[in-house]
Design a protein that fits this description.
two-stranded antiparallel sheet; 112 residues
């Protein structure tokens, strides 16, 4: 088992990128292992960690097909559907509530 190289925040060498940076370049890690990590110190908690991947081993992002886009639209529509009032809320319903905000307010008011 090898240990990861650890770099201070903003001091990673060229050729390494985070997932977000890869995505901005139109790439994805493509199954490669984490090459290194960045650590950003914080005052009262442990450091923030960002994993780095090699850019030369990254693969292009898979193109969005019509079927994948339809499945994604269906999944996002299900996240907007309120089970209590059975209507489209027009926004993604918070998982903590499990229902749209007006229904959650009404049920909290009835419970009190």
């Amino acid at each position: 088992m090898s240990t990861l190289a650890v770099y201070p925040w903003r001091l990673a060498p060229d050729g390494l990128a985070t997932r977000r940076q890869l995505r901005a370049l139109g790439l994805r890690p493509g199954g490669q292992d984490v090459a290194a990590q960045l650590e950003r110190p914080r005052r009262r908690r442990g450091p923030l960690v960002a994993y780095l991947y090699r850019i030369d081993r990254a693969r292009p992002v898979r193109p969005m097909t019509e079927r994948r886009a339809a499945a994604l639209a269906k999944a996002n529509a299900a996240r907007r559907w309120c089970r209590a009032c059975r209507s489209d809320a027009g926004y993604v319903i918070p998982a903590s509530l499990g229902m749209c905000v007006p229904c959650a307010d009404e049920s909290a008011h009835l419970a009190a």
